[in-house]
Write a structure and sequence with these properties.
This protein is α+β, with helices and mostly antiparallel strands. It has 17 helices and twelve strands.
């Protein structure tokens, strides 16, 4: 019994052509098959190399191999890229001269929510700033940030790491009782004695989302004075109401916790701890670091003025301090127009708005630029870019093409648009009009005499005058 052969229809350059299934199943020539495999491989390589996650993961692996002293991966990259392994190593070393702050990259970033990742980067950057400015004292100091108000979760630095080692992924996540809910990338726990101080304040003051313990020598010295911090400079006025508490170094009893809360009060965000430094708090990480900066400057200024005696110093009056504090707390741009001037070419009246900063926001963003320029890779999302973008052109700014040489056609074109003739007319006629009006040539009527007749008549003709003809 004869079997019918199924046929398939394919398109070729010459038209339609039918081939049998057996012919379609025949193997391709070896060179064509090799070319097809090479094309597929190149597509896969191109898609992988264009992936941001792959580049970040590759950089992380190479960085880890270099720290461990292994040269296997560098040799493999050298074979692939066709360049010496030493040169590849120098490229990666130059781009990773410091421990990056934002080490949550590649596949690992998928395990964090966007808000938590941003908060981790900002908190880790705060540790790096404290270290760069020399305001940290060993590993005992602690900075906490409230992560979730509903579940009362906090990010805390691992106890055992120096401030310059803290990264975004190394932070521990703890609850209000100091129990670690999620470990960071280290095996270290937290300083429970220090966290008790922070947790008491976080529990009593929900408005405080970040608390920074400062044991810098100048701050500790001022906390040991009976007079405390005096209003001698503008830095003191910017701190607002400064609370003072006689601190024993730990909060073991409920009575001590109540005394601490009574000393702090419902408004103050800066607490001097006798002989132990200060605790600077804020509604944001930016505000808490803002308080730390002014606290350090105020304490250093007072220590320099102490040799002359407090009786010889001029204190800032209470009214002046309040005015300085209120002016600094007003968001930037409030009570003003968003921009002082309007651009000359902006005919629609659009104003260039400046962002309204919260307390310490603009200063913190400037410090993040400093860290990024130094190669720390903060992962900070900037609200106000440093480089000014191009001024947008107004919508009604129509550039006249240089080929148009007759203003009359432009006026006629504008009138036709206003009357709605082009929009409501026949599309074919409209296209014909636009073709003639948009032509780069100029058309004019010329009367000429007939030729070849004894009685010539005047004939009106349309002549094309090009741009060169007009110019000549």
């Amino acid at each position: 019994m004869a079997t019918e052969t199924e046929t398939a229809t394919i398109h070729t350059n010459g038209g339609l052509e039918t081939v049998s299934e057996e012919e379609g199943m025949k193997p391709r020539p070896a060179d064509i098959e090799a070319d097809m495999r090479e094309m597929e491989r190149r597509k896969r390589v191109e898609s992988i190399m264009n992936s941001r996650l792959f580049r970040e993961e590759l950089e992380r692996i190479v960085d880890g191999q270099m720290r461990e002293g292994s040269s296997t991966i560098l040799q493999q990259l050298s074979d692939i890229m066709g360049m010496p392994a030493a040169r590849i190593g120098s490229v990666f070393k130059s781009s990773n001269c410091v421990v990056p702050i934002n080490d949550i990259r590649g596949v690992e970033s998928m395990g964090y929510e966007k808000g938590e990742k941003i908060l981790r980067c900002k908190l880790a950057a705060t540790f790096r700033l404290m270290d760069l400015f020399g305001w940290m004292q060993g590993i005992a100091c602690q900075i906490t940030a409230r992560l979730n108000a509903d579940q009362e979760l906090f990010l805390v630095n691992p106890y055992g790491m120096l401030f310059h080692e803290v990264t975004a992924s190394s932070l521990n996540k703890v609850n209000m009782q100091g129990q670690i809910v999620e470990h960071g990338t280290t095996n270290f726990g937290i300083n429970n004695n220090q966290f008790t101080l922070h947790s008491v304040i976080h529990a009593a003051r929900p408005d405080i989302r970040c608390a920074i313990y400062v044991a810098y020598s100048a701050v500790t010295a001022i906390s040991a004075l009976k007079q405390g911090l005096q209003p001698l400079t503008k830095h003191t006025a910017l701190l607002g109401e400064i609370a003072f508490h006689t601190y024993a170094g730990a909060l073991n009893e409920p009575e001590e916790k109540d005394k601490l809360l009574r000393s702090l009060g419902p408004v103050s965000k800066v607490l001097l701890l006798s002989n132990h430094g200060a605790l600077c708090c804020g509604e944001t990480i930016e505000e808490a670091f803002y308080h730390v900066t002014h606290m350090v400057h105020a304490c250093e200024a007072q220590l320099k003025l102490l040799p002359v005696g407090l009786e010889n110093l001029i204190l800032i009056p209470e009214e002046t301090r309040k005015a300085i504090y209120d002016a600094a707390r007003k968001p930037s741009g409030e009570g003003q127009e968003a921009a002082s001037a309007q651009t000359a070419d902006n005919k629609e009246g659009q104003l260039t708005k400046t962002p309204k900063w919260r307390v310490g926001g603009s200063e913190f963003e400037a410090l993040m630029r400093m860290l990024d320029n130094a190669g720390f890779r903060t992962g900070y999302i900037f609200r106000n870019p440093l480089i000014k973008g191009d001024v947008p052109k107004p919508r009604n700014d129509i550039e006249v093409p240089p080929a148009v040489s007759s203003l009359g056609y432009l006026i006629e074109e504008e009138e036709l648009f206003k009357q709605g003739i082009w929009r409501k007319g026949d599309p074919r006629k409209v296209g014909d009009r636009t073709r003639w009006l948009n032509s780069p040539n100029v058309y004019q009527k010329v009367e000429v005499l007939e030729t070849g007749t004894p009685d010539p008549k005047k004939i009106t003709k349309v002549e094309i005058v090009t741009i060169e003809g007009n110019l000549n």
